[in-house]
């Protein structure tokens, strides 16, 4: 009986520790002349914050240096903020025909 109680307690605890539910890593896709040249990592967003950044974009407060590129501070639209995607899975040729 005691072992059953301990096993049940552990399974409930492990489920409640699942804090990644509804969370994704996000980055800004930075373009120069219509070509994505850098990805500025923004960190992990969860639940309402994730929905907000995917719908409204992200306001980068300070310049971000990524390799040889400086991503300037400013508002980045939702189509330039990618969450939970892997490199190469998104195509923005139509978004950046400047």
Find the structural class using helix and strand composition. alpha+beta
Order the strands across the largest sheet as they lie in space.
Answer: 2-1-7
Q: Helix share of residues? A: 25-40%
| Low-confidence runs | 2-19, 86-98
Radius of gyration: 19 Å
Shape: elongated
Query: So how many helices?
Result: 2
Count of structural domains: 1
Q: Tell how many strands the DSSP assignment holds.
A: 7
Please trace the helix and strand order, writing H or E for each element: HEEHEEEEE
Percent of sequence in beta strands = 35-45%
Query: Which whole number gives the mean pLDDT?
Result: 78
Q: Termini, distance in Å?
A: 70 Å
For the biggest sheet, the summary is: 3 strands, antiparallel
Compact summary:
With 98 residues, the chain is α+β, with helices and mostly antiparallel strands.
How would you describe what is shown here?
By secondary structure, this protein is of the alpha+beta class. It has one domain (22-98). It has two helices and seven strands; from the N terminus they run αββαβββββ. The strands form three sheets. The protein has a three-stranded antiparallel beta sheet. Strands 3-6 form a two-stranded antiparallel sheet. The longest helix has 15 residues, at 2-16. It is elongated. It starts with a helix and ends in a 15-residue tail after the last strand. 13% of the residues are buried. Residues 2-19 and 86-98 have low confidence and may be disordered.
Element layout with pairings:
Elements: H1 2-16, E1 23-32, E2 35-46, H2 47-56, E3 58-60, E4 64-66, E5 69-71, E6 74-76, E7 81-83
Antiparallel strand pairs: 1-2, 1-7, 3-6, 4-5
């Amino acid at each position: 009986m005691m072992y059953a109680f301990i096993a049940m307690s552990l399974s409930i605890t492990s489920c409640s520790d699942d804090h990644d539910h509804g969370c994704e890593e996000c980055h800004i896709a930075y373009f120069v002349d219509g070509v994505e040249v850098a990805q500025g990592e923004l960190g992990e967003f969860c639940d309402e914050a994730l929905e907000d950044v995917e719908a409204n974009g992200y306001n980068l407060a300070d310049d971000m240096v990524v390799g040889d590129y400086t991503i300037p501070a400013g508002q980045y639209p939702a189509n330039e903020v990618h969450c939970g995607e892997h490199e190469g899975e998104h195509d923005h040729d139509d978004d950046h025909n400047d």
